[in-house]
Design brief:
The chain contains 12 helices and 9 strands. It is α/β, with parallel strands linked by helices and 323 residues long. The chain folds into 2 domains: 28-120 and 247-318, Bordetella uptake gene, domain 1 (D-Maltodextrin-Binding Protein, domain 2, 3-Layer(aba) Sandwich); 122-220, Periplasmic binding protein-like II (D-Maltodextrin-Binding Protein, domain 2, 3-Layer(aba) Sandwich). It binds D-malate. The site of D-malate has 13 residues, from α2, α6 and α7.
Length: 323
Protein backbone atom coordinates (compact mmCIF):
# COMPACT_ATOMS: atom_id res chain seq x y z
CA UNK A 1 0.00 0.00 0.00
CA UNK A 2 2.75 2.41 1.05
CA UNK A 3 4.82 1.70 -2.11
CA UNK A 4 1.75 2.12 -4.33
CA UNK A 5 0.90 5.42 -2.72
CA UNK A 6 4.50 6.58 -3.01
CA UNK A 7 4.55 5.72 -6.72
CA UNK A 8 1.23 7.51 -7.26
CA UNK A 9 2.46 10.56 -5.39
CA UNK A 10 5.65 10.56 -7.46
CA UNK A 11 3.61 10.17 -10.62
CA UNK A 12 1.20 12.99 -9.80
CA UNK A 13 3.97 15.24 -8.48
CA UNK A 14 6.16 14.57 -11.53
CA UNK A 15 3.30 15.64 -13.77
CA UNK A 16 3.26 18.92 -11.80
CA UNK A 17 2.03 22.12 -13.46
CA UNK A 18 1.16 20.41 -16.75
CA UNK A 19 -1.09 17.97 -14.89
CA UNK A 20 -2.72 20.75 -12.90
CA UNK A 21 -3.06 22.91 -16.03
CA UNK A 22 -5.12 20.23 -17.77
CA UNK A 23 -7.21 19.53 -14.66
CA UNK A 24 -10.02 18.56 -14.67
CA UNK A 25 -9.94 16.51 -17.85
CA UNK A 26 -12.51 13.91 -16.67
CA UNK A 27 -15.46 13.73 -14.21
CA UNK A 28 -14.75 14.27 -10.52
CA UNK A 29 -16.26 11.99 -7.86
CA UNK A 30 -17.54 13.66 -4.70
CA UNK A 31 -17.95 11.17 -1.83
CA UNK A 32 -20.94 11.99 0.41
CA UNK A 33 -20.76 10.22 3.81
CA UNK A 34 -24.51 9.87 4.32
CA UNK A 35 -27.57 8.60 2.44
CA UNK A 36 -29.13 10.61 -0.37
CA UNK A 37 -31.68 13.24 0.66
CA UNK A 38 -30.05 14.33 3.93
CA UNK A 39 -28.40 17.70 4.65
CA UNK A 40 -24.91 16.65 3.62
CA UNK A 41 -26.16 15.16 0.36
CA UNK A 42 -28.35 18.21 -0.37
CA UNK A 43 -25.42 20.57 0.20
CA UNK A 44 -23.14 18.39 -1.95
CA UNK A 45 -25.59 18.50 -4.84
CA UNK A 46 -26.33 22.23 -4.64
CA UNK A 47 -22.68 23.27 -4.33
CA UNK A 48 -21.34 20.46 -6.53
CA UNK A 49 -23.62 21.31 -9.43
CA UNK A 50 -22.43 24.94 -9.44
CA UNK A 51 -18.78 23.88 -9.04
CA UNK A 52 -19.11 21.54 -12.02
CA UNK A 53 -20.27 24.47 -14.15
CA UNK A 54 -17.23 26.47 -13.02
CA UNK A 55 -14.86 23.58 -13.71
CA UNK A 56 -16.63 22.60 -16.95
CA UNK A 57 -16.55 19.04 -15.72
CA UNK A 58 -19.15 16.69 -14.25
CA UNK A 59 -19.12 16.12 -10.48
CA UNK A 60 -20.53 12.69 -9.71
CA UNK A 61 -22.02 12.13 -6.22
CA UNK A 62 -21.02 8.86 -4.54
CA UNK A 63 -23.10 8.26 -1.39
CA UNK A 64 -20.97 6.11 0.94
CA UNK A 65 -23.07 5.83 4.12
CA UNK A 66 -22.38 3.93 7.31
CA UNK A 67 -20.73 4.40 10.72
CA UNK A 68 -21.47 8.14 10.79
CA UNK A 69 -19.18 8.89 7.88
CA UNK A 70 -16.10 6.93 8.97
CA UNK A 71 -16.44 4.50 6.04
CA UNK A 72 -16.63 7.37 3.58
CA UNK A 73 -13.65 9.25 5.01
CA UNK A 74 -11.59 6.06 4.97
CA UNK A 75 -12.43 5.58 1.30
CA UNK A 76 -11.49 9.20 0.57
CA UNK A 77 -8.19 8.93 2.48
CA UNK A 78 -7.24 5.86 0.41
CA UNK A 79 -8.24 7.41 -2.93
CA UNK A 80 -5.67 8.43 -5.53
CA UNK A 81 -4.57 12.01 -4.74
CA UNK A 82 -5.10 13.31 -8.29
CA UNK A 83 -8.05 15.65 -7.75
CA UNK A 84 -10.59 13.24 -9.27
CA UNK A 85 -11.87 12.03 -5.89
CA UNK A 86 -12.95 14.59 -3.30
CA UNK A 87 -15.34 14.37 -0.36
CA UNK A 88 -17.75 16.48 1.64
CA UNK A 89 -17.73 16.14 5.41
CA UNK A 90 -18.52 18.13 8.51
CA UNK A 91 -17.92 18.73 12.20
CA UNK A 92 -18.97 15.16 12.95
CA UNK A 93 -17.21 13.25 10.19
CA UNK A 94 -13.98 15.28 10.22
CA UNK A 95 -13.56 16.32 13.86
CA UNK A 96 -15.78 14.53 16.41
CA UNK A 97 -15.37 11.07 14.86
CA UNK A 98 -11.65 11.36 15.54
CA UNK A 99 -12.47 11.39 19.28
CA UNK A 100 -15.24 8.79 19.21
CA UNK A 101 -13.82 6.05 16.95
CA UNK A 102 -10.68 4.66 18.56
CA UNK A 103 -9.71 2.33 15.70
CA UNK A 104 -10.01 4.47 12.58
CA UNK A 105 -7.68 3.17 9.87
CA UNK A 106 -6.85 6.73 8.80
CA UNK A 107 -5.84 9.99 10.48
CA UNK A 108 -8.49 12.69 10.07
CA UNK A 109 -5.98 15.49 10.56
CA UNK A 110 -3.16 14.14 8.36
CA UNK A 111 -4.60 11.83 5.69
CA UNK A 112 -6.97 14.40 4.22
CA UNK A 113 -6.22 17.78 2.62
CA UNK A 114 -8.77 20.55 3.29
CA UNK A 115 -10.05 22.17 0.08
CA UNK A 116 -12.68 24.68 1.26
CA UNK A 117 -14.95 25.34 4.20
CA UNK A 118 -18.65 25.17 3.24
CA UNK A 119 -21.86 26.46 4.88
CA UNK A 120 -23.05 25.45 8.33
CA UNK A 121 -26.49 24.46 9.54
CA UNK A 122 -27.89 25.22 12.96
CA UNK A 123 -29.87 22.38 14.53
CA UNK A 124 -33.63 22.44 15.13
CA UNK A 125 -35.39 20.58 17.93
CA UNK A 126 -38.18 18.85 16.04
CA UNK A 127 -40.79 16.20 16.85
CA UNK A 128 -43.54 14.36 15.05
CA UNK A 129 -46.91 16.10 15.08
CA UNK A 130 -48.19 13.52 17.57
CA UNK A 131 -46.12 14.88 20.47
CA UNK A 132 -48.49 16.94 22.71
CA UNK A 133 -46.12 19.75 23.71
CA UNK A 134 -46.54 23.37 22.71
CA UNK A 135 -43.08 24.63 23.65
CA UNK A 136 -39.63 23.38 24.62
CA UNK A 137 -40.34 23.38 28.35
CA UNK A 138 -43.43 21.22 27.86
CA UNK A 139 -41.48 18.98 25.48
CA UNK A 140 -38.69 18.42 28.04
CA UNK A 141 -41.28 17.59 30.71
CA UNK A 142 -43.00 15.17 28.30
CA UNK A 143 -39.69 13.51 27.38
CA UNK A 144 -38.84 12.98 31.04
CA UNK A 145 -42.27 11.54 31.82
CA UNK A 146 -42.27 9.23 28.78
CA UNK A 147 -38.58 8.45 28.29
CA UNK A 148 -39.26 4.74 27.74
CA UNK A 149 -41.69 5.49 24.92
CA UNK A 150 -39.52 7.97 23.03
CA UNK A 151 -37.03 7.22 20.21
CA UNK A 152 -34.85 9.81 18.54
CA UNK A 153 -33.21 9.54 15.14
CA UNK A 154 -29.56 10.27 14.36
CA UNK A 155 -27.18 9.48 11.51
CA UNK A 156 -25.01 7.40 13.82
CA UNK A 157 -22.60 7.98 16.73
CA UNK A 158 -20.60 11.11 15.92
CA UNK A 159 -22.97 12.45 13.29
CA UNK A 160 -24.15 16.04 13.48
CA UNK A 161 -27.58 14.91 14.61
CA UNK A 162 -25.89 12.87 17.36
CA UNK A 163 -23.74 15.82 18.46
CA UNK A 164 -26.96 17.80 18.76
CA UNK A 165 -28.49 15.08 20.94
CA UNK A 166 -25.46 15.10 23.27
CA UNK A 167 -25.81 18.87 23.76
CA UNK A 168 -29.60 18.54 24.19
CA UNK A 169 -29.31 15.76 26.79
CA UNK A 170 -26.65 17.68 28.75
CA UNK A 171 -28.67 20.91 28.84
CA UNK A 172 -32.13 19.44 29.51
CA UNK A 173 -31.40 16.37 31.64
CA UNK A 174 -33.42 14.26 29.21
CA UNK A 175 -32.53 10.86 27.81
CA UNK A 176 -34.24 8.68 25.26
CA UNK A 177 -33.40 5.78 22.95
CA UNK A 178 -31.37 6.67 19.87
CA UNK A 179 -32.00 5.02 16.50
CA UNK A 180 -29.11 5.30 14.00
CA UNK A 181 -29.88 5.79 10.29
CA UNK A 182 -27.70 5.90 7.17
CA UNK A 183 -28.55 9.60 7.06
CA UNK A 184 -31.09 12.04 8.42
CA UNK A 185 -32.89 12.09 5.09
CA UNK A 186 -34.33 8.62 5.79
CA UNK A 187 -34.63 9.42 9.53
CA UNK A 188 -36.84 12.46 9.01
CA UNK A 189 -39.28 10.36 6.97
CA UNK A 190 -39.71 8.08 10.00
CA UNK A 191 -40.13 11.16 12.21
CA UNK A 192 -42.95 12.44 10.01
CA UNK A 193 -44.57 8.99 10.32
CA UNK A 194 -44.06 8.99 14.15
CA UNK A 195 -41.95 5.81 13.89
CA UNK A 196 -39.48 7.89 15.89
CA UNK A 197 -40.58 10.92 17.90
CA UNK A 198 -37.76 13.46 18.01
CA UNK A 199 -34.64 14.71 16.21
CA UNK A 200 -32.10 17.45 16.79
CA UNK A 201 -31.81 17.98 13.10
CA UNK A 202 -29.91 20.23 10.70
CA UNK A 203 -32.11 23.12 9.58
CA UNK A 204 -31.79 22.28 5.88
CA UNK A 205 -33.21 18.82 6.53
CA UNK A 206 -36.22 19.76 8.65
CA UNK A 207 -37.27 23.21 7.46
CA UNK A 208 -39.11 22.05 4.29
CA UNK A 209 -41.16 19.56 6.39
CA UNK A 210 -41.86 22.14 9.12
CA UNK A 211 -43.11 24.58 6.48
CA UNK A 212 -45.34 21.81 5.07
CA UNK A 213 -46.85 21.26 8.55
CA UNK A 214 -45.41 17.73 8.81
CA UNK A 215 -43.18 18.35 11.84
CA UNK A 216 -43.30 20.47 15.02
CA UNK A 217 -40.34 22.72 15.79
CA UNK A 218 -39.50 24.02 19.26
CA UNK A 219 -36.14 25.81 19.09
CA UNK A 220 -32.96 26.48 17.13
CA UNK A 221 -29.57 25.66 18.67
CA UNK A 222 -28.01 29.08 18.08
CA UNK A 223 -27.33 32.36 19.88
CA UNK A 224 -29.58 34.22 17.43
CA UNK A 225 -32.83 33.29 15.70
CA UNK A 226 -32.42 32.08 12.13
CA UNK A 227 -33.57 34.40 9.32
CA UNK A 228 -35.10 31.41 7.54
CA UNK A 229 -37.22 30.59 10.60
CA UNK A 230 -37.69 33.90 12.49
CA UNK A 231 -40.59 32.60 14.60
CA UNK A 232 -38.51 29.76 16.07
CA UNK A 233 -37.01 30.74 19.44
CA UNK A 234 -33.41 29.98 20.32
CA UNK A 235 -32.93 27.22 22.89
CA UNK A 236 -31.89 29.92 25.40
CA UNK A 237 -35.09 31.93 24.77
CA UNK A 238 -37.04 28.67 25.20
CA UNK A 239 -35.52 28.17 28.66
CA UNK A 240 -32.46 26.01 27.97
CA UNK A 241 -29.23 27.96 27.42
CA UNK A 242 -26.04 26.20 26.47
CA UNK A 243 -27.25 24.30 23.41
CA UNK A 244 -25.53 26.30 20.66
CA UNK A 245 -24.24 23.89 18.01
CA UNK A 246 -23.91 24.43 14.27
CA UNK A 247 -22.81 21.68 11.89
CA UNK A 248 -20.27 23.28 9.58
CA UNK A 249 -19.31 21.45 6.38
CA UNK A 250 -16.25 21.32 4.17
CA UNK A 251 -14.58 19.71 1.19
CA UNK A 252 -11.49 17.52 1.52
CA UNK A 253 -9.16 15.63 -0.84
CA UNK A 254 -6.75 12.79 -0.12
CA UNK A 255 -3.38 13.89 1.30
CA UNK A 256 -0.89 14.49 -1.49
CA UNK A 257 -3.35 16.09 -3.90
CA UNK A 258 -1.28 18.77 -5.73
CA UNK A 259 -1.79 22.26 -4.25
CA UNK A 260 -2.54 23.67 -7.71
CA UNK A 261 -5.50 21.31 -7.93
CA UNK A 262 -6.65 22.12 -4.41
CA UNK A 263 -6.51 25.80 -5.45
CA UNK A 264 -8.66 25.16 -8.56
CA UNK A 265 -11.27 23.29 -6.50
CA UNK A 266 -11.21 26.00 -3.83
CA UNK A 267 -11.72 28.72 -6.44
CA UNK A 268 -14.68 26.81 -7.91
CA UNK A 269 -16.24 26.43 -4.43
CA UNK A 270 -15.83 30.17 -3.78
CA UNK A 271 -17.53 31.00 -7.10
CA UNK A 272 -20.34 28.57 -6.22
CA UNK A 273 -20.97 30.19 -2.82
CA UNK A 274 -20.90 33.69 -4.32
CA UNK A 275 -23.58 32.79 -6.88
CA UNK A 276 -26.75 34.71 -5.81
CA UNK A 277 -29.06 31.81 -6.75
CA UNK A 278 -26.98 29.32 -4.75
CA UNK A 279 -26.84 31.69 -1.78
CA UNK A 280 -30.59 32.14 -1.88
CA UNK A 281 -31.18 28.37 -1.89
CA UNK A 282 -28.78 27.75 1.01
CA UNK A 283 -29.94 30.69 3.14
CA UNK A 284 -33.57 29.67 2.60
CA UNK A 285 -32.58 26.39 4.29
CA UNK A 286 -31.17 28.28 7.27
CA UNK A 287 -27.53 27.94 6.26
CA UNK A 288 -24.73 30.30 7.22
CA UNK A 289 -22.31 30.82 4.31
CA UNK A 290 -18.58 31.35 5.06
CA UNK A 291 -16.59 34.20 3.46
CA UNK A 292 -14.01 33.48 0.75
CA UNK A 293 -11.33 34.22 3.36
CA UNK A 294 -12.80 31.59 5.71
CA UNK A 295 -13.00 29.15 2.79
CA UNK A 296 -9.28 29.36 1.94
CA UNK A 297 -7.46 25.99 2.43
CA UNK A 298 -5.03 27.42 5.03
CA UNK A 299 -7.79 29.18 6.99
CA UNK A 300 -9.98 26.06 6.83
CA UNK A 301 -7.07 23.88 8.01
CA UNK A 302 -6.56 26.18 11.01
CA UNK A 303 -10.29 26.21 11.72
CA UNK A 304 -10.53 22.42 11.68
CA UNK A 305 -7.53 22.19 14.02
CA UNK A 306 -9.17 24.64 16.46
CA UNK A 307 -12.40 22.62 16.32
CA UNK A 308 -10.47 19.45 17.20
CA UNK A 309 -9.01 21.25 20.24
CA UNK A 310 -12.49 22.46 21.22
CA UNK A 311 -14.45 19.22 20.76
CA UNK A 312 -11.97 16.57 21.97
CA UNK A 313 -12.46 17.36 25.70
CA UNK A 314 -16.23 17.75 25.22
CA UNK A 315 -16.56 14.29 23.67
CA UNK A 316 -14.19 12.73 26.21
CA UNK A 317 -16.23 14.31 29.05
CA UNK A 318 -19.42 12.92 27.47
CA UNK A 319 -17.76 9.50 27.60
CA UNK A 320 -18.76 8.69 24.01
CA UNK A 321 -16.34 6.26 22.36
CA UNK A 322 -16.38 3.27 20.07
CA UNK A 323 -13.46 0.86 20.42
C1 LIG B 1 -25.63 14.12 10.30
O1 LIG B 1 -24.52 14.40 10.69
O2 LIG B 1 -26.62 13.98 11.02
C2 LIG B 1 -25.71 13.97 8.84
O3 LIG B 1 -25.21 15.16 8.27
C3 LIG B 1 -27.02 13.62 8.36
C4 LIG B 1 -27.04 13.58 6.87
O4 LIG B 1 -26.38 14.40 6.22
O5 LIG B 1 -27.75 12.70 6.39
Amino acid sequence: MLRRTALILLGVAAAGPAFAQAYPSKPITMIVPFAAGGPTDVMARIVGERMSKELSQQIIIDNVAGAAGTIAMGKLARSTPDGYTIGIGHLGTNVVNGSIYKNLNYDLQNDLAPIARLPSNPLLVVTSNQIPAKDLKELVAYLKANADKISGGTAGMGSGSHIGVLAFFAATGTNYQLVPYRGTGPAVQDLIANQIQIMIDQSSNSLPHIRAGKLKVYAVTAKERNAAAPDVPTTAEAGFPGIEVAIWHGLWAPKGTPPEIIAKLNAAAIVALRDPEIRRKLEDLGQDIPTPEQMAPAAFTAYQKAEVAKWTPIIEKAGVKIE
